[in-house]
Write a structure and sequence with these properties.
single chain; Immunoglobulin-like; nine-stranded mixed sheet; 21% helix
C-alpha cells in the first residue's frame, strides 16, 4: 500500500508541475455584434503565475493577447484593441477576457495558458481549467445545441441526424454541413428525388461514410458515421434529414450541432476530473489486489502451521498408555481399586467405600 500511495503522489505531482491536464470544454454561442466573457482559471499554486496567454488553435491558430502580472496586456492584432478588455491578474490565478462586437471570424476554440517560473528549467506553461468553443452566428438563426464528439486520428465519429422541421415521417435524403470558417459548407449530400435513382455528392470518400437507421423511443433514428478521421477534419458538423415536401438542401447549420475534435495520434481524456477518476480507480484496483494477495498468503501460512503439528491418532495415544498399565500390574489389587474410585472433587460427598481405605484386621 505504501508503494501505491507513493506512485499516486508522484503521478499527481507530475500532473500539477508539468501542466499536463485535460481541460473541460465549454461551448458558447453568440450572435454577431454581441459580447462574450472567457474566464481563465487555474488551481492556486506556489509560486504564482507571472503571465498569461490567450490563444486560439482551431480555425485561425494564433496568440490573441499576453498579459504580464501588474501590467497592461498586449494584443497580437491592433485591430482588436477597441473590443477586447481584461480584468484581473494572472498572479491571482484567475482573470476574465471580454471580447465585444463579435463577428463570424471570431468563431474558434480558445484557451488560456498561464506561465509559472521554474528555477531548475524552462518556465512551466499550464493550461486553464476550461477551453472555450465560440460559435458566432452571422444571421442570428436562434438557439443552437452544441455537443462534443472527441476521437483519435484514424478513428470514427457517429453523428445523429435530425429533420429540419417536424418529425422524420418520410426521409428522402441526408445532408451534412460543416463549418470551419465564417460560413457552413455542405460536405455530404444524398437524395432520391432526382433522376429516378437519386443523386449524391460528398467531400468524403464513399468508404469513409456510413448512414444507418435503428428504432428508437421516438421512432426511427438515423446516424451518420464518419470514418478514418484526421485532425484536419475537426470542425462543427450538423447532420440533417431531407423530408418529403421539405427543402431540398440547406445553407446553414441545424439546431443540433456537434463539435468533432480529432486528436492527432492520442486519445486523451476529455476533462481533468475524468483523469483523476481513472487514476483513483487504478489505485483502488491495485489496493484490492494487494489485499487479496495478503489474505491468500496469510491463509497459506495458517494451513502450513497446522500441517506441521499433526495430532496423534487415537490408536497411538492408547498404545502409548499400555506400558503404564503394565507397570501398574504388579501392584496390589486393592491399590488399583482405590485409584479407580478417587474421582470426586470433594471427598466428603463421596459415599463410604470400604475398599478405598481398608481398616487393618484385628488380631484375635
Amino acid at each position: 500500500m505504501t508503494r501505491i500511495q507513493y506512485l499516486a503522489c508522484l503521478w499527481t505531482l507530475f500532473l500539477t508541475q508539468t501542466g499536463f491536464v485535460c481541460s473541460d470544454i465549454q461551448f458558447m454561442e453568440r450572435n454577431q455584434g454581441e459580447s462574450v466573457v472567457l474566464p481563465c482559471v487555474i488551481d492556486p499554486r506556489n509560486p504564482s503565475p507571472f503571465g498569461i496567454y490567450l490563444k486560439r488553435d482551431w480555425l485561425r491558430p494564433k496568440e490573441v493577447l499576453f498579459k504580464y502580472t501588474d501590467s497592461n496586456f498586449k494584443l497580437n492584432d491592433n485591430d482588436d484593441k477597441n473590443r477586447i478588455s481584461v480584468t484581473g491578474d494572472p498572479s491571482r490565478h484567475s482573470l476574465n477576457v471580454t471580447i465585444s462586437q463579435l463577428n463570424a471570424g471570431d468563431t474558434d476554440r480558445y484557451y488560456c495558458e498561464f506561465l509559472v517560473a521554474n528555477p531548475s528549467s524552462e518556465d512551466d506553461q499550464i493550461r486553464g481549467k476550461t477551453e472555450f468553443v465560440l460559435l458566432v452566428n452571422a444571421d442570428a438563426p436562434g438557439t443552437v445545441n452544441i455537443g462534443l464528439v472527441e476521437t483519435c486520428s484514424g478513428a470514427s465519429a457517429v453523428l445523429p441526424c435530425f429533420p429540419q422541421h417536424g418529425e422524420a415521417l418520410a426521409v428522402e435524403g441526408v445532408s451534412l454541413m460543416r463549418q470551419r470558417g465564417q460560413k457552413p459548407v455542405e460536405v455530404l449530400y444524398h437524395s432520391k428525388r432526382h433522376h429516378g435513382g437519386g443523386s449524391s455528392s460528398s467531400q468524403f470518400p464513399v468508404e469513409r461514410v456510413q448512414l444507418s437507421s435503428a428504432p428508437g423511443p421516438r421512432g426511427i433514428t438515423y446516424n451518420l458515421t464518419l470514418k478514418q478521421l484526421q485532425p484536419d477534419d475537426s470542425a462543427l458538423y450538423s447532420c440533417q434529414l431531407l423530408l418529403r415536401g421539405g427543402p431540398d438542401s440547406t445553407t446553414s447549420l441545424g439546431r443540433q450541432v456537434f463539435f468533432v475534435s480529432v486528436q492527432g495520434g492520442q486519445c486523451g481524456c476529455s476533462n481533468y476530473s475524468t483523469l483523476l477518476y481513472a487514476l483513483s480507480a487504478a489505485v483502488a484496483v491495485l489496493f484490492l489486489l494487494l489485499l487479496f494477495g495478503f489474505v491468500v498468503i496469510y491463509k497459506g501460512k495458517a494451513r502450513r502451521s497446522v500441517k506441521s503439528h499433526p495430532q496423534a491418532p487415537i490408536y497411538e495415544e492408547m498404545t502409548g498408555v499400555k506400558p503404564v498399565c503394565r507397570k501398574l500390574a504388579p501392584h496390589h489389587l486393592e491399590e488399583m481399586e482405590s485409584s479407580e474410585y478417587r474421582n470426586c472433587p470433594v471427598k466428603k460427598s463421596c459415599p463410604e467405600n470400604h475398599y478405598e481405605s481398608p481398616k487393618p484386621r484385628s488380631e484375635f
